[in-house]
Design brief:
- It is a single chain.
- The model has no long low-confidence stretch (mean pLDDT about 95).
- The chain contains four helices and seven strands; from the N terminus they run αββαβββββαα.
- It has about 190 residues and is of the alpha+beta class.
- The strands form two sheets. The protein has a five-stranded antiparallel sheet, sandwiched between helices. A two-stranded antiparallel ribbon has the order 4-5.
- About 35% of the residues are buried.
Length: about 190
């Protein structure tokens, strides 16, 4: 099943996602999230972006692999109940980010260059990884979704103010994207 993406303005995107109970059957949901992410040409998708306030996200960072030897099982991953720690919190890198839930709006976002993440994989096996550069950035972006935080929240107030007309267009459904979007808050 391909889920519609929940756009900016929907309350689920601002909620802290619920922790999943150990052993919960997520096989179908995970498959559907990967399919949804692929159809929308994303590199990551968090459960709140499909209307499910759950501590779960999927990523495919093979796009950022420079050696051309991307292994799908290494770069297409599932993160359940993750905990992210900044490996070197003083090494901050700015880079432009976008978001499927906020189409057309890109922002320079400060992120830690490297992170450590503890999580469960799709088989409920505990894992721990250290990531750097773009894979670390993608993980931090998706992890923020589980905390109710969006990439535009990192913008200074003056830059955020300039985006208000575009953000209002998204909230009101006055956008065109190549993937399904679903509004639930009765703004339309």
């Amino acid at each position: 099943m391909i889920y519609p993406i929940i756009p900016y303005g929907e309350p689920v995107l601002r909620q802290k996602a619920a922790t999943l109970e150990l052993g919960t059957d997520l096989k179908t949901l995970i498959e559907d999230m990967f399919a949804t992410m692929d159809v929308a040409s994303g590199v990551g998708l968090a459960a709140p972006q499909i209307g499910k306030s759950l501590q779960l996200f999927v990523v495919d960072v093979s796009y950022f692999v420079e050696d051309g030897k991307a292994q799908p099982d290494k770069y297409r991953k599932v993160y359940i109940n993750p905990i992210v720690e900044m490996s070197h919190p003083h090494t901050i890198v700015y880079h432009e980010e976008g978001c499927l839930s906020i189409p057309g709006i890109f922002a320079e976002v400060p992120r830690s260059k490297s992170i450590r993440i503890k999580f469960f994989d799709q088989n409920w096996e505990p894992r721990e990884e250290e990531l750097v550069d773009m894979p670390a950035r993608v993980i931090q972006h998706e992890y923020d979704h589980l905390l109710g935080k969006l990439h535009i929240d990192y913008l200074p107030a003056d830059k955020r103010l300039l985006l208000e007309p575009q953000l209002e267009d998204i909230k009101q459904g006055r956008i065109q994207v190549d993937y399904a979007i679903q509004y639930n808050n009765n703004n339309n």
